[in-house]
Write a structure and sequence with these properties.
Strand content: 35-45%
Number of strands: 16
Strand order of the largest sheet: 1-2-3-4-5-6-7-8-9-10-11-12-13-14-15-16
Shape: globular
CATH architecture of the largest domain: Beta Barrel
Largest sheet: 16 strands, antiparallel, barrel
Length: about 500
């Protein structure tokens, strides 16, 4: 027994001695490895410290462009809308459409080949569900060829249209930074109309101008030299219509000016001036002048109205074709100018609570002025006429939902108010052009993400004080009071014009 215990003790002592020796050796090896790692780390730090990050970044950018980054970046904006619209005429009759449905798709594209040059484009598709009832079966051969049911199997017209296409050059110099662009410019849904559309604001003041145009702009950032927050000045140039002969003019002068007094270039010049914008409070001003605006002359309108009344009283084929023959033609009736100033707030007060921080509000005033030329009438008058309009709104958190927003807008226009707002802001006509009062209440609710999928509810009502709100700039834009229009209609001398219009709108919008 004693011998066995002695052997065990010797074995344990041997193992312990070996373990101690092994542990000591391992400790020495570990210390060497740590010192080696420290040396490598110091070497790596020195390498990183002396690296040319700018050069590396340029190399990475070049690799990116050479592989997958050198291409257009696309986006999609699809909206489904259903409107319930109603018009009340001065006779008491109502015109309605309880379920006017439409699709709108905007395909966006952007590319910046350099830091100071960008291209922006948008293709737009916007149409009613199905085919619109604006033709008869027999107007084509065969008669069904232009029905929407087979539109993609027939070579008809180009239904996808260019909404925007322009390049933007940016120069961030040390004196006055500026940008310059030319092409089909973004000019619909400017501030403050963009709030109820849940869009980024386009360039012009939407109270005065809300229409697509081809042109150029030059913006100068004055805040860098004045130290006034957000100050800038932008010059805008645009052409609405081109005085040119058509292709294949048959006299060898394709696209030459046609030299007709009643058809000239429609050019617009203007500026946008922001005297202050600190991100919360801002002031936006806009002035524009346009030459040779179009409309119908008095003689042509009188002849057409006479033929129209004759057809209404005796709807014969002879009277119908006489009315069609006397349909008035556009003339260049005179010049137009206008201006607007808008005060806005993106958040009210400081530290007044989350509700006030997320409240947006604005108030805007605008004027328009006509200058008839060559004996024509503008807005039914041979003399210069001035109109004005007020526009105000507020948008607040819905409170009943986490991300929803509720807004209210109001605008009122005078007798001769006539902005350039052909980019219709409602399907019942431009509410901002109303010679009368328009009210609108809307609700925007994100369903998925912040803006990926949203639902919009809107109610708009327009009550006209004068006729001609959505007419062009000639004799047809003559403002009659609603009482005058009713008297003329009762005497058989006027048409059954609209006195009130309303629109209940539901929309679902997807953006990517």
């Amino acid at each position: 027994m004693k011998s066995s215990r002695t052997k065990v003790s010797l074995i344990l002592a041997s193992l312990l001695t070996s373990g101690v020796v092994y542990a000591a050796d391992a400790q020495v090896d570990l210390a060497k490895e740590i010192e080696a790692l420290k040396a490598e780390l110091n070497e790596l730090k020195a390498t990183v410290k002396n690296s040319n990050f700018d050069g590396m970044q340029r190399e990475l950018s070049a690799i990116k462009k050479a592989t997958y980054g050198d291409n257009l970046k696309f986006s999609a904006d699809y909206r489904y809308t259903i409107d319930s619209i109603e018009y009340k005429h001065i006779s008491g009759k109502k015109s309605k459409n309880d379920d006017f449905m439409s699709n709108r798709l905007i395909l966006g594209m952007k590319y910046a080949p350099t830091d100071d040059l960008s291209f922006i484009g948008e293709l737009s598709y916007n149409k009613a569900f199905g085919d619109t009832d604006n033709h008869a079966q027999s107007n084509t051969q065969p008669g069904y060829a232009n029905f929407d049911w087979v539109t993609n199997e027939n070579a008809t017209d180009n239904t996808v249209k260019v909404k925007q296409a322009y390049f933007l050059y940016k120069n961030d110099n040390d004196t006055i930074p500026y940008t310059a662009s030319v092409g089909r410019r973004p000019s619909v849904n400017g501030y403050p109309l963009n709030l109820r559309e849940n869009d980024q604001a386009a360039s012009p003041n939407s109270h005065l101008i809300n229409v697509e145009f081809d042109g150029a702009s030059f913006k100068f950032d004055l805040d860098k030299i004045t130290d006034i927050s957000g100050m800038y000045f932008k010059i805008c140039l645009g052409r609405g219509l081109t005085n040119a002969k058509q292709r294949f003019s048959m006299d060898g002068t394709d696209y030459a000016q046609n030299n007709r007094e009643d058809s000239k270039h429609v050019d617009m010049y203007g500026f946008v001036f922001v005297p202050y914008d600190d991100g919360q409070y801002h002031v936006l001003t806009n002035f524009a002048w346009a030459k040779d605006m179009i409309g119908y002359d008095q003689a042509g309108m009188n002849a057409y109205q006479g033929a129209y009344m004759a057809w209404m009283m005796a709807p014969t084929s002879s009277n119908y074709y006489d009315m069609i023959y006397k349909t008035p033609q556009f003339k260049s009736v005179g010049d137009w100018n206008g201006g607007a100033i808008t005060l806005g707030a993106d958040g009210i007060g400081e530290d007044w609570g989350d509700f006030m921080d997320e409240t947006k509000a604005f108030v805007s005033w605008a004027f328009t002025k006509t200058k008839p030329q060559n004996g024509y009438t503008m807005l039914g008058s041979t003399e210069s006429q001035t109109g004005h309009s007020w526009y105000a709104g507020i948008q607040v958190p819905a409170l009943v939902t986490e991300k929803g927003r509720i807004g209210v807008e109001w605008n009122k226009g005078s007798k001769y108010w006539r902005p350039v707002t052909y980019g219709e802001d409602t399907v019942i006509g431009s509410k901002l052009a109303a010679r009368g009062t328009a009210w609108e209440v809307y609700y925007i609710q994100p369903l998925i993400g912040k803006d990926t999928l949203t639902m919009d509810l809107r109610f708009t009502q327009i009550k006209y004080d004068y006729t001609g709100s959505n007419a062009f700039f000639g004799y047809e834009g003559m403002p009659l009071s609603i009482d005058e229009a009713k008297a003329a209609y009762a005497a058989g001398m006027g048409s059954d014009v609209v006195e009130k219009a309303s629109d209940i709108r539901v929309a679902f919008r997807y953006r990517y």
